[in-house]
């Protein structure tokens, strides 16, 4: 997907350790939702080597920022500032100042300097469940040097060879900024390569301060919407339904209750959209429990022994289609 910057309209859960998946309780990372989680592969504090980890209290979420262990002093120059780097108003994408005060740039005379590029790569390991892992990357920038008048630092970004930035990017002086892909990258076997290339108008080489890299895992077996579960339990009890209704109504998909269809949106729990209990031998009045299925589109109660009138609440269901 195209990159987003928190300075523009942007459309995720903070792992406490490299092994833990994201949880929906965190205010960060919009890529994580009710049906997919992010598992941390790497969280690097670039531009500093051999230093202590950065974590709480510098990072209020106690994310652990690890000094980059792959710094080649012949290839990369470490640059830094003693000045505090300001956060953006959008706190979903902010690395702590202690991380953003350092960065890497191509060292003069290196191959990267000759090509005016920075190339970094990460790999998410395939496994039996995810033979082609889906990956999410977040890269952080802040200008830590004083750019003299007439000088400019401007670069374009590419992911796996495909241009990622819609326009050349210039880091702001001592202000944290971040770019991320809002949708997972697929089809590269879990490989994620970032290329930052200076534009023809740039007099300075590109820099990068920090990066996070995640693999995406499905949480598609999220439980059915609670209100739908309560409504179905009440219907089952009231009419002593003889169907084999047990467990969660909509999950797993292979065991959806007989007579139900469900919707599976990316950002919310499954909802019941169709209920067919025709020829069910049901007796008595039509209860308002049916009206508590707020996402229902098709409701078939035919060929039962119902008595009385149809509740007005059924006519108020927003998606119900008359049969």
Write the layout of secondary structure elements.
Layout: E1 3-4, E2 36-45, E3 66-67, E4 76-80, H1 97-100, E5 102-106, H2 111-115, E6 117-123, E7 134-141, E8 155-159, E9 162-163, E10 177-181, E11 191-198, E12 210-218, H3 226-239, E13 260-263, E14 271-276, E15 283-285, E16 298-300, E17 305-307, H4 312-315
Parallel strand pairs: 2-3, 14-16, 15-17
Antiparallel strand pairs: 1-10, 2-12, 4-5, 6-11, 7-10, 7-12, 8-9, 8-11, 13-14
Question: How would you describe this structure to a colleague?
Answer:
- The chain is mainly β and 323 residues long.
- The protein folds into 2 domains: 216 residues, Jelly Rolls; 90 residues, Leucine-rich repeat, LRR (right-handed beta-alpha superhelix) (Alpha-Beta Horseshoe), CATH 3.80.10.
- It contains 4 helices and 17 strands.
- Strand 13 and strand 14 form a beta hairpin.
Number of domains: 2
Mean of residue pLDDT?
Answer: 83
| Biggest sheet features | 6 strands, mixed
**CATH class label of the largest domain:** Mainly Beta
Architecture of the largest domain in CATH? Sandwich
Order of helices and strands: EEEEHEHEEEEEEEHEEEEEH
The count of DSSP E runs of length 2 or more, i.e. the number of strands, is 17
Strands side by side in the biggest sheet: 1-10-7-12-2-3
| Terminus-to-terminus distance | 40 Å
Domain Malectin-like: 29-216
Membrane topology: Single-pass membrane protein
Subcellular location: Membrane
Region (Disordered): 1-29
């Amino acid at each position: 997907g195209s990159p987003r910057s928190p300075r523009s309209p942007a459309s995720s859960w903070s792992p406490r350790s490299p092994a833990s998946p994201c949880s929906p309780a965190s205010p960060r990372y919009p890529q994580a939702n009710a049906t997919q989680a992010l598992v941390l592969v790497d969280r690097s504090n670039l531009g500093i080597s051999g230093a202590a980890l950065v974590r709480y209290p510098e990072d209020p979420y106690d994310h652990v920022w690890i000094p980059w262990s792959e710094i080649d002093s012949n290839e990369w120059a470490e640059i830094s500032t003693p000045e505090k780097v300001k956060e953006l108003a959008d706190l979903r994408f902010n690395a702590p100042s202690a991380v953003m005060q350092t960065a890497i740039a191509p060292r003069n005379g290196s191959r990267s300097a000759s090509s005016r590029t920075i190339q970094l790569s990460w790999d998410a390991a395939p496994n039996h469940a995810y033979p082609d892992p889906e990956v999410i990357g977040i890269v952080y920038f802040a200008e830590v040097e004083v750019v003299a008048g007439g000088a400019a630092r401007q670069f374009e970004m590419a992911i796996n060879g495909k241009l990622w930035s819609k326009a050349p990017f210039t880091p702001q002086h001592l202000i944290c900024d971040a770019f991320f892909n809002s949708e997972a990258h697929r089809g590269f076997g879990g490989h994620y390569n970032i290329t930052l290339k200076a534009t023809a108008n740039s007099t300075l080489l590109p820099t990068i301060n920090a990066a996070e890299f995640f693999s995406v895992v499905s949480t598609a077996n999220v439980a059915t919407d609670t209100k739908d579960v309560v409504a179905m339990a009440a219907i089952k009890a009231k009419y002593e339904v003889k169907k084999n209704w047990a467990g969660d109504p909509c999950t797993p998909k292979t065991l959806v209750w007989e007579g139900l269809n469900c919707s599976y949106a990316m950002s919310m729990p499954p909802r019941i959209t169709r209920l067919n209990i025709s020829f069910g031998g049901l007796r008595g009045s039509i209860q308002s429990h049916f009206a508590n299925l707020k996402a229902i589109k098709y409701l078939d109660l035919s060929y039962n022994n119902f008595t009385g009138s149809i509740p007005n609440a059924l006519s108020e269901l927003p998606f119900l289609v008359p049969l």
